Amino acid sequence: MSQFVRHDRLRTFVERFATLLDEAPAEASLLNTGGIYLRELIAHDDWLPEAYARPDPERYQQYLLHADSRQRFSVVSFVWGPGQATPVHDHTVWGLIGVLRGAEIAQPYCLNEHGTVIASGTARRLESGTVDAVSPHIGDIHRVSNAYPDRVSISIHVYGANIGAVSRSVYPEQGGRKAFISGYSNDALPNIWNVSRELAIP
Ligand SMILES: [Fe+2]
Asked: What domain of life does the native source organism fall in (predicted)?
């Protein structure tokens, strides 16, 4: 089965993203050009191995797909079971969110003068194929939920760090903030580097 997974798509994406970071590391270009690369990646749904698309009945899953060798960026699949949602949270680094399967609702938040989160603007519905962005400069606090109460949705996220190791915050409704480090749901990564196997496919 695995030989039919188009690992070359993710490999090409991370190669292009690493080159972009070398040549145009300003956040605006990473979000704009990187967003175009991500839109191209999620235009196809034949490359994410099943092990990284598996929901959990208890909570949404975040599977690391690739980490840059210098931890300049990471690529993660978020798998949302029916009705699942994140708490209100921040990132502290830039992030791109591309919906691969299903749809998601993204609600931005900001902090009021008491440091309590309040909804900022209306929630956006992100259909498959669309890309959204976050960062401390353009708005970093949001809550993301599966738009569907009865099916799985999957999004592919790219962050400007090894996001599972970044110290950041969740914002409880009653105010204040709580530090958290998300970690990842998986221990093994997809092997996107077995190029000889791809060459052997007639
Ligand atoms: Fe987020």
From this structure: Bacteria
Question: What is the 144 CA–ligand 1 centroid distance (Å)?
Answer: 7
Q: At what angle do helices 27-42 and 7-23 cross, to 10 degrees?
A: 170
Q: Distance from the CA of 142 to the center of ligand 1, in angstroms?
A: 6
Q: Please tell me the predicted confidence (pLDDT) of residue 202.
A: 61
More confident residue, 113 or 76: 76
Q: How confident is the model at residue 115 (pLDDT cuts 50, 70, 90)?
A: confident
Ligand 1 mean position, distance from CA 105 (Å): 11
> Strand 141-146 to strand 103-111: parallel, antiparallel, or no bridges (unpaired)?
antiparallel
User: Whole-prediction pTM value?
Assistant: 0.94
Measured in Å, residue 141 CA sits from the centre of ligand 1 at 7
Q: If you measure from the C-alpha of residue 94 to the centroid of ligand 1, how many angstroms do you get, rounded to a whole number?
A: 10
**Pairwise CA distance, residues 6 & 10, whole Å:** 8
Q: What whole-number distance in Å separates Cα of residue 146 and Cα of residue 60?
A: 9
Mean pLDDT across 105-123: 92
pLDDT of residue 66: 98
**Binding site residues for Fe cation, as ranges?**
89, 91, 142
Positive/negative CA dihedral, 110, 131, 63, 188: negative
**Cβ–Cβ < 8 Å for 86, 140:** no
